[in-house]
Write a structure and sequence with these properties.
249 residues; 11-stranded mixed sheet; 3-stranded antiparallel sheet; 11% helix; globular
C-alpha cells in the first residue's frame, strides 16, 4: 500500500485528498530467491526461527523486491505461506519466527517473549524502566517520538557491559510500539549507536546496534516451553573491546 509512491501502513494517518494505492498480493506467491542465505536457529514441523542478518527486510516493499526474508522463505519452503510471528526492522539483526501454517500462527501470535540487546551511547544506570508514550512524528510516515498524546510504551532494561563510549543493554519490552527501543533510549539521552535517525552516531557502526537475541514461547502442538538464542553479532561486539570494558554484569 503506497501514498505518493511511498509505503504507508494501515495504522498510519492519512489526510483528505491523499491517494492510496493498494496492491493485493498473497504472500504465498513471493518470488523465491535461492541466492540468499539466512541461518536457521530453530525449526520444527510448526515453525522456523531464522537468525536474520542486518540489512535484510522481512517483507518486500517498493524499494526491496526479491532480497527479503520472505523471498528466502519462499525458496526454502515452496508452497507455504509466509506468516511472520515477530518482525524486525531491516537493520535490526536477530531472531525472527515464521509460522508454517495458520493454526501455529494464531497460537503463537502475542505469546512470544522477545529479549533484545542494544549498544547505546553513554553510561546508563545498571537497571531502569522507561515509561513514556510514543506517537508518530507529525508529517512523517517513519519517525516516532515521545509525546503525551501517544500510546503507552514501557521498556525495561539491564546494563550488561560498559565501555568508554557505550553501554550494552538487555531489553525486555512490556509493550511493542514501532521503534520503541530506539525512541525510548534516545528520549533518555542514550540513543542507539549507529541510529542516526534518532540521534545516534555512526562513528563505530553503520547501522542501529540492535539485536533480537532470545525468543521464548510454547510449542503450538505440544505446549512444551522453548527458548532460542542468537549470539551477539560481530559489529556490536566490536563496540566493547576487551581492554575497554569497565563494568560487567
Amino acid at each position: 500500500m503506497t501514498r505518493g509512491g511511498e509505503t504507508v501502513r494501515s495504522i498510519d494517518t492519512v489526510n483528505r485528498g491523499d491517494v492510496i494505492v493498494l496492491a493485493l498480493e498473497d504472500d504465498s506467491f513471493l518470488e523465491p530467491n535461492g541466492a540468499l542465505n539466512v541461518p536457521i536457529a530453530f525449526e520444527n514441523e510448526s515453525l522456523v526461527v531464522f537468525d536474520k542478518p542486518c540489512g535484510m527486510p522481512v517483507h518486500p516493499s517498493v524499494k526491496h523486491q526479491g532480497d527479503t526474508l520472505g523471498n528466502f522463505f519462499a525458496h526454502r519452503y515452496p508452497g507455504l505461506t509466509f506468516r511472520p510471528v515477530n518482525r524486525l526492522d531491516r537493520d535490526t539483526s536477530g531472531l525472527c519466527m515464521i509460522a508454517k501454517d495458520a493454526l501455529a500462527a494464531k497460537l503463537l501470535q502475542g505469546s512470544c517473549k522477545k529479549v533484545y540487546y542494544a549498544a547505546v551511547h553513554g553510561n546508563i544506570p545498571e537497571r531502569g524502566t522507561i515509561d513514556a508514550p510514543i506517537a508518530r512524528e507529525r508529517e512523517s510516515i517513519i519517525l516516532r517520538c515521545v509525546r503525551e498524546d501517544g500510546q503507552r510504551a514501557v521498556t525495561h532494561y539491564t546494563k550488561l557491559l560498559g565501555s568508554e563510549r557505550y553501554s550494552l543493554a538487555e531489553i525486555d519490552l512490556e509493550t511493542g510500539r514501532t521503534h520503541q527501543i530506539r525512541v525510548h533510549f534516545a528520549h533518555i539521552g542514550a540513543p542507539l549507536a549507529g541510529d542516526d535517525l534518532y540521534g545516534g552516531l555512526r562513528d563505530d557502526i553503520s547501522r542501529q546496534a540492535l539485536h533480537c537475541g532470545r525468543l521464548s514461547f510454547k510449542d503450538p502442538l505440544t505446549g512444551e516451553p522453548i527458548t532460542v538464542s542468537s549470539e551477539l553479532p560481530g559489529d556490536i561486539k566490536a563496540l566493547f573491546p576487551t581492554g575497554g570494558i569497565i563494568w560487567k554484569r
